[in-house]
Amino acid sequence: MTRPTLVILAAGMASRYGGNKQTESFGPNGETIMEYSIYDAIKAGFGKVIFIIREEFHKAFAKSMEAKLNGKIELDYVFQSLDSFSNGIQFNQDRVKPFGTAHALLCCKGKVNEPFAVINADDFYGFDAFQQAYQFLTTKIADGKYACLGYALKNTVSEFGAVTRGEIKTNTHNEIVSIKERREIILKDGKIVSLENDHQEILDQDTQVSMNFFCFDPTFINWMEKQYYQFLEENKNELKAEFLIPEVADQMIKSGNAAISVIPTDAKWFGVTFKDDAPIVKEELLKLTHEGVYPEVLWKEALVN
φ and ψ at 216, to 5 degrees? Predict the structure, then answer.
């Protein structure tokens, strides 16, 4: 049996956070958030990790990761840059950032040849999520049959500012009908409010949302390449437009090319969007360590992979 791969989105510039949060220490012994995801993925049975990073960080990043992970899981790297897959399209030269998470995943074309899960580097997803993803990727994945881990909205907002979340609507078969990317979600007077185009909408706290934890096979990457070229043509003069995984998944569903099931998880999610989120994450990881969920030194224990 081919073991699935974990793809980690770690190329973001973290403009709202004000630093490179993907490589910041959060665990009691300097562990990054993504190291906990890798630890959980290894325990679940994943066979390989691919890091999507900026090429200028490669040498230092690889040195750090390989010192901890060599012999525990296969490692590989993919580089995302603004020019990746530009297809000769000339876009606004004042643009600085690459074009988002789906663009990052497109950069994995040819590198991923097996079923895979994709996650954010700066989100903590919990072991149950990886265990369920592994189960799906080894028993249920098929061409056009994908999955998304679903989290309750109330567990994914920040008290320190607006966040972006993919609001999930499902049918009676628990398949996604639509994923609506809401880019300005805030806490206001004890309620969760979406602010878009000067319009306020109160959202149900138990609404399922995507946290960019998807289960795909390589056909998804191949399908979205054409969509990306179309996106570039339509947004080549935009400075902030992004090509995002939930929105591409939504397009694929509505085109009839895929069915994406929601996998609900009891795992507790937490993440870092703003600087003020950091102490909360550190406290949560310390608590999990004290409870014995993770070892005191994450990579001291030998993991069988």
Answer: -130, 175
Of the candidates 159, 100, 160, 125, the one whose C-alpha atom is nearest the C-alpha of residue 35 is 125
Q: What is the pLDDT of residues 283-305, one digit of tens each?
A: 999 999 999 999 988 987 655 55
Distance CA 146, CA 125 (A): 18
Residue spans of the domains in the chain: they are 5-142+211-244+268-290
Model pLDDT, residue 200: 87
Per the DSSP assignment, residues forming a β-bridge with 161 are: none
pTM of structure = 0.89
Tokens at 153, concatenated: 């909205």
CA atoms within 13 Å, Cβ hemisphere of 119: 27
User: Residue 44 and residue 42: Cα distance in Å, rounded?
Assistant: 5
3-state DSSP helix/strand/coil % of the chain, to nearest 5: 30, 25, 40
Both tokens assigned to 270 = 């937490």
Mean pLDDT on 249-258: 92
Which residue is it, tokens 């909205």? 153
Mean pLDDT value of segment 206-210: 90
What distance in Å separates the CA atoms of residue 39 and residue 46, rounded to the nearest whole number? 10
111-128 pLDDT per residue, tens: 999 999 999 998 999 999
Topology of the domain covering 5-142+211-244+268-290: Spore Coat Polysaccharide Biosynthesis Protein SpsA; Chain A (3.90.550)
pLDDT of residue 64: 86
Structure tokens given for 35: 């190291």
Q: Are 275 and 21 in contact (CB under 8 A)?
A: no
| Closest to 123 (Cα-Cα) out of 255, 12, 241, 240 | 12
Q: What is the dihedral of CA 275, 277, 279, 283, to 10 degrees?
A: -160
**Would you state the structure tokens that stand for residue 286, as one six-digit string?**
């310390």
Residue of 221, 47, 208, 237 lying closest to 137 (CA atoms): 47
